[in-house]
Amino acid sequence: MIVDDAAGVLTWPGCRNVRDLGGTPTTDGRRIRHGALLRSDRLTPADVPAARAAGVSRIVDLRWARECERDPSPFASDPVYRNAPLLADPLGYNPPEDSYGPMLDHNAERMAVAVRLVADAPPGAVLVHCHAGRDRTGVLVALLLGLAGVGPAEIAADFARTEGCGPLPMRNTLTHLDAHYGGSAGYLTAAGLDPALLAAVRSRLLPRAGPPGQAGPRQNTTST
């Protein structure tokens, strides 16, 4: 069964951290469209029907290749699937506990690859995930939401909805992003992405029509 509640949380059989970012407010009064961007932890075969029912047209798996070899995605042979490791392997730095700033600093090209996969995905929902759906997924989602005009407080609040997370590391990360790169657009432009691709992300995530503040009705779906 798949249940989409008021907080965007989805109940998928094998996932602990899966949700729809639809309804997240932007600073100009709009909201992220429902069914445009989903985030999760690793997928299992039991989650395949749920992902199909959600209209997922692209899955961006942010795990290292060795993780995927050890624990293959159930979508590995499906055209919707892309593996785009978000981090160098090995890392090459010691990650602090209170910020993902170094993750941004050391992996800009990889971040750009993942964002490009979101931008050029076929019509439908894009699902991004890593192993736990927390660190790598959280940083990529923060960049995507920032491009769409979601403010730092809302991005940090979404991050804190993930199991085992609090808002402070994301707040610190966004402060670093603004101070060193001028925000998501500046960071990704410096990483080599064309402004047209950034615009494509915004177009995918934001409402196509309707008055400000409307993201469309939230869908309650059930699949067995």
Key words describing this protein structure:
disordered C terminus; about 220 residues; Protein-Tyrosine Phosphatase, Chain A; 5 strands; about 10% strand; 9 helices; alpha/beta; single chain; globular
Explain the overall architecture.
44% of the residues are buried. This protein has a five-stranded mixed sheet with strand order 1-2-5-3-4. It is of the alpha/beta class and 224 residues long. The protein has nine helices and five strands. Helix 2 links the parallel strand 3 and strand 4. The model is unreliable at 1-6 and 211-224 (pLDDT under 50). The N and C termini lie close together (6 Å). The protein has one domain (19-205): Alpha-Beta Complex (Protein-Tyrosine Phosphatase, Chain A), CATH 3.90.190.10. It is globular and about 40 Å long. It has helices at residues 48-53, 65-70, 101-106, 108-119, 135-147, 152-160, 168-181, 184-190, 195-205, and strands spanning 19-20, 37-40, 56-61, 81-83, 125-129. InterPro entries: Prot-tyrosine_phosphatase-like (IPR029021), Tyr/Ser_Pase_IphP-type (IPR026893), Tyr_Pase_AS (IPR016130), Tyr_Pase_dom (IPR000387). This is Tyrosine-protein phosphatase. Belongs to the protein-tyrosine phosphatase family.
- Major sheet: arrangement of strands: 1-2-5-3-4
Question: What CATH architecture would you give?
Answer: Alpha-Beta Complex
The count of strands amounts to 5
**Count of discrete alpha- or pi-helical segments spanning 4 or more residues:** 9
Major beta-sheet overview: 5 strands, mixed
The percent range for strand residues is 5-15%
The assigned structural class equals alpha/beta
Overall mean pLDDT: 91
Compute the gyration radius: what is it?
Answer: 16 Å
Uncertain segments are: 1-6, 211-224
**Number of separate structural domains:** 1
Percent in helix? 25-40%
Distance between the termini: 6 Å
> Strand-and-helix sequence, N→C?
EEHEHEHHEHHHHH
The CATH class name reads Alpha Beta
The CATH fourth-level homologous superfamily = Protein tyrosine phosphatase superfamily
CATH topology: Protein-Tyrosine Phosphatase, Chain A
Overall 3D form: globular
